[in-house]
C-alpha cells in the first residue's frame, strides 16, 4: 500500500464486541434474544412502539456507557495519518468510532439520533426515548430511533458507491456478511480493481470474495494491521 492509495473500511458489530456490546448473530446475540420482526421493522414500531423503544433504549444506554477499544482507536489513527484517503463506513449504530476520534459514515443510522416518522426531521435523541413523544419540528410524527430497520434503505449509499468505485483496498472488519447492501461491497470493490482483506474472528458468509484474511479478535488484529500499513 502506498500513502496515495484510497482505502474503504467497512465495520460491523464484531469491532465493538470487545467494548462489551453484543453482536447480532454470534452465540446468544441480539437476534437470539429478540425477533427482528418485533423490534427492527417499521411495522414493529407501528404495532408496539413501547417494545421497540425498550429495545433501543437498552442498547443506547449500553452504547453510551461503552468505550472504544484498540480496534476503533487504530482506525482513527490510520485516518489521521492518511488524511482524506480513508473512508470509514459502519453498519454499527453505537457511536464508538466517533468516541475514538474517527469520522465515519453511518449507513444504518445512529442510536444517538431520533427521527420523525412523518417529516424526516432528525435531532439528538435523549438517552431514554419515551413512547408517545412527537417530532419537535412538525408536532405530528412519532419520534423513533434514527436507525435503519429491515425493509428500509440504508443511508449515504451514493457516497459509499463513489468511494468503492475509486478504492485501491477494501477492508471488512467484524461483519458476518449476511446483510445487503453492505455484504455486497466487497464485490463492488473487486470490480473496481481493489485488493480486499477481511478481519474477523472466523470465516464470514463473504470470506470467499476476499484476497486476504486475518483471523483473530479485532482489538489485536486491527492495530497490527494498521501498524503494517503505516510502517
Ligand atoms: N473481533 C472480530 N470479529 C468479531 C469479534 C471480535 N472480537 N466478535 C465477533 N466478530 C465477528 C463475528 O465472527 C461475525 O462475523 O463479527 C461478526 C458479527 O456479525 P453480526 O452479528 O451479523 O453483525 P453485523 O455483520 O454487523 O450485522 C450486520 O445486520 O441485523 C443487522 O443492522 C444490523 O448492522 C447489523 C447488520
From TrEMBL:
Segments forming domain Deacetylase sirtuin-type: 1-231
Predominant location category: cytoplasm
Superkingdom of origin organism: Bacteria
Cofactor note as given: Binds 1 zinc ion per subunit.
Cited function: NAD-dependent lysine deacetylase and desuccinylase that specifically removes acetyl and succinyl groups on target proteins. Modulates the activities of several proteins which are inactive in their acylated form.
Residues that hold NAD(+) according to the record: 12-31, 91-94, 174-176, 200-202, 218
EC numbers for this chain: 2.3.1.286
Positions contributing to substrate binding: 56, 59
GO CC terms: cytoplasm
Localization in the cell: Cytoplasm
Catalytic-site annotation from UniProt: 108 (proton acceptor)
Keyword terms, alphabetized: Cytoplasm, Metal-binding, NAD, Transferase, Zinc
Protein name: NAD-dependent protein deacylase
Amino acid at each position: 500500500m502506498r500513502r496515495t492509495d484510497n482505502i474503504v473500511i467497512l465495520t460491523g458489530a464484531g469491532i465493538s464486541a470487545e467494548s462489551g456490546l453484543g453482536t447480532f448473530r454470534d452465540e446468544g446475540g441480539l437476534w437470539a434474544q429478540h425477533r427482528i420482526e418485533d423490534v427492527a421493522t417499521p411495522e414493529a414500531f407501528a404495532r408496539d412502539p413501547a417494545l421497540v423503544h425498550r429495545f433501543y433504549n437498552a442498547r443506547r444506554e449500553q452504547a453510551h456507557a461503552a468505550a472504544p477499544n484498540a480496534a476503533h482507536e487504530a482506525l482513527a489513527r490510520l485516518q489521521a495519518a492518511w488524511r482524506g484517503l480513508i473512508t470509514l463506513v459502519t453498519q454499527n449504530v453505537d457511536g464508538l468510532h466517533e468516541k475514538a476520534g474517527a469520522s465515519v459514515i453511518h449507513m444504518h443510522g445512529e442510536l444517538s439520533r431520533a427521527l420523525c416518522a412523518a417529516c424526516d426531521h432528525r435531532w439528538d435523541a435523549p438517552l431514554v426515548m419515551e413512547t408517545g413523544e412527537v417530532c419537535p419540528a412538525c408536532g405530528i410524527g412519532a419520534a423513533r430511533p434514527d436507525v435503519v430497520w429491515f425493509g428500509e434503505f440504508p443511508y449515504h449509499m451514493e457516497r459509499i458507491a463513489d468511494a468503492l468505485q475509486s478504492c485501491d483496498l477494501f477492508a471488512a472488519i467484524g461483519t458476518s456478511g449476511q446483510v445487503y447492501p453492505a455484504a455486497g461491497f466487497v464485490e463492488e470493490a473487486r470490480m473496481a480493481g481493489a485488493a480486499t482483506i477481511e478481519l474477523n474472528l472466523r470465516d464470514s458468509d463473504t470470506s470467499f470474495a476476499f484476497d486476504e484474511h486475518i483471523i483473530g479478535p479485532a482489538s489485536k488484529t486491527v492495530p497490527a494491521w494498521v501498524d503494517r500499513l503505516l510502517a
